[in-house]
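Table S2 (continued). Query chain:
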Amino acid sequence: MTENTTFFLGANTPYGFRSLFRELYDPTDGWRAYILKGGPGTGKSTLLKTIAARCGEAGVGYETIRCASDPNSLDALRIESKKICIADGTAPHVLDPKYPGAVEKTLDLSTYWDDTRLRENREEIMRLFAENASAHRRCVRFLQAAESLSRDVRRIALGCVDTDKIERYASRFASRRFGAPRGVIGREHTRYLSAVTPEGIYVHRDTLDALCEEVLVVEDLYGAVSAALLGCLRRYALGAGLDVIVCPCPLHPDAGPQHLLVPHLRLGIVTENAFHRFEGTSKVRASRFTDAAALRAHRSRITFSRRTEKELIEEAVSACSDALRIHNELETYYKCAMDFDSVTRLAEKTAAEILS
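Corresponding output:
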């Protein structure tokens, strides 16, 4: 990924917060990592933005990882050309050194705060941390309920799908676009292209535009066809020696790809549903693989489930928004206790190290 791209590497899911931060770097392949530690409002995201700006000024491409709890905040940068990443290693995406010094360097921003000022506000800080955790738990409970309904609809839809027809379509598509096996297996990267955030379901459309000149949109309201089709295409692409970016659905993180990107071919295959629409160069409808009459027999049940699922996701978004409001209140206590001049000097020094 040489273009400047943006993804999530953590997401709120029905199973709690799912972190993919170990995808950031491979210690066995010469990568180095800077891991940031510190509390809310201590300047981690600002430090990352400073380094991103210096990389941009130097013409060095990078991958930006944004925070699902606040898409305006950065969680990490990944600079593939230099095999270096810089990441916020605090909860919920805890990242600790595996090979301290040899691979990872910890930048501890607590060095620059005034313990005395934080202790003076101890009770309020503890209360806000507890309220923030409670809001995140509420978000997860709503997502669990939504996923239960969505899973029921998927199960119904899958019973009406001709999976052999999907396999034949995938085989023809792969033969035409991926070519014959090259004797090597492609590499697989996992990223979230979308996430449930305080701003609703947030999709990194700019990343799709940056990586893909051609976008095949799989129009699938229920997810059964797209999961099966993209799962087949993932297998064929890897078998043809092509690197892929697999993007799971935050509501069904273990159900296979929701979106599949093949950067070498400048190709994206994305799922369109009630929560996100896409402009594509071509479209395939799930209905071509589905027994419409069999599906109509379950219409009232599906309609109820989809309507209720949408309402539950709206409540999850509201809980996310509450968590962000509380987090922002927490930040005020830490900001008042920080020496940000020192954090700025650390950011510039780290940027210089990376670019040298």
